[in-house]
Amino acid sequence: MLTRIFLIVAIVAGLAAAGISAYFGRNVMLKTIGERDDYHTQLTAETKAKTEALAKLKKTEGDLKDTTAKLTQTQGELATANGRVTDLETQNKDLTTTLTRTRADRDTAQQELDKWRQIGLQPEQVKAVIANLASTQKERDQYIAENKIIVAKANELQRELDALRGPAETVLEPAGLRGHILSVDPKFGFVVLDIGSDNGLLERGEMLVDHGGQFVGKVRIVSVAKNRAIANILPNWTKGDINEDCRVID
């Protein structure tokens, strides 16, 4: 009887223990399930966050690539723009130089035009003057060429004549006679004057050569035309350079 009681007690105790174990086991299981669900929730959130982060990173990398491409393009455009600026600066410098030269040419032309206006000549008259000047210069050059031979021959004849009868007497030129030297031939030692018989100039006359108020020599007239004359340079009287800037005076 006592054994049965102990057995019953043991069974009851076992059942109680099993109930307690089942109770606590259920709580542990529920807790574990809750922890598992929390872990899965957290894992899902972290995975989602990681996925979003990776997507943002990929987008950022794409944006960075686009930005780098745009930066490279911008740098290229900047280099091109700098090149254009350099070209424009060069063009501006060239244009400024051209403008300065053009203004200088314009001012010179205006000054020349003012000079012509001061002497009262019209453009047609200026053309006529230039044409006459060209013709006169051509005649002068022809006259000089022809008279080189004449002067050389005349000098030779004069030397022969001087040797036969002595030096010819010097002729006095009209008082106050003035003229200018048109050209000089240093080889043959003679000059061409812009005065002649129309001015009263005489052959074998002598005239002083003046340059800027300074005496530089003397010449002897050997050939006279209406408005031109040939004169020999007298070496013993030469004191300076005789050129086209000189004038002759009596």
Question: Can you summarize this structure?
Answer:
This protein has 250 residues and is α+β, with helices and mostly antiparallel strands. It has helices at 2-118, 123-165; strands at residues 178-185, 190-193, 206-211, 214-224, 229-233, 247-249.
Description:
The chain is an alpha+beta fold. Helices cover 64% and strands 15% of the residues. The protein has helices at 2-118, 123-165; strands at residues 178-185, 190-193, 206-211, 214-224, 229-233, 247-249. The chain has a six-stranded antiparallel beta barrel with strand order 1-2-5-4-3-6. The model has no long low-confidence stretch (mean pLDDT 78).
Summary tags:
2 helices, rod-shaped, six-stranded antiparallel β-barrel
SSE topology sketch:
Blueprint lengths: L1 H117 L4 H43 L12 E8 L4 E4 L12 E6 L2 E11 L4 E5 L13 E3 L1
Antiparallel strand pairs: 1-2, 1-6, 2-5, 3-4, 3-6, 4-5
| Rounded radius of gyration (Å) | 61 Å
- Could you tell me the number of beta strands? 6
Which class of secondary structure composition applies to the elements? alpha+beta
Could you tell me how far the N terminus lies from the C terminus, measured between alpha carbons in angstroms? Answer: 189 Å
* Unreliable stretches: none
Percent of residues in helices: 55-70%
Question: Main sheet: which strands, in order across?
Answer: 1-2-5-4-3-6
- The oligomeric state is single chain
- In DSSP terms (H or I, runs of 4 or more residues), the helix count works out at 2
Main sheet properties: 6 strands, antiparallel, barrel
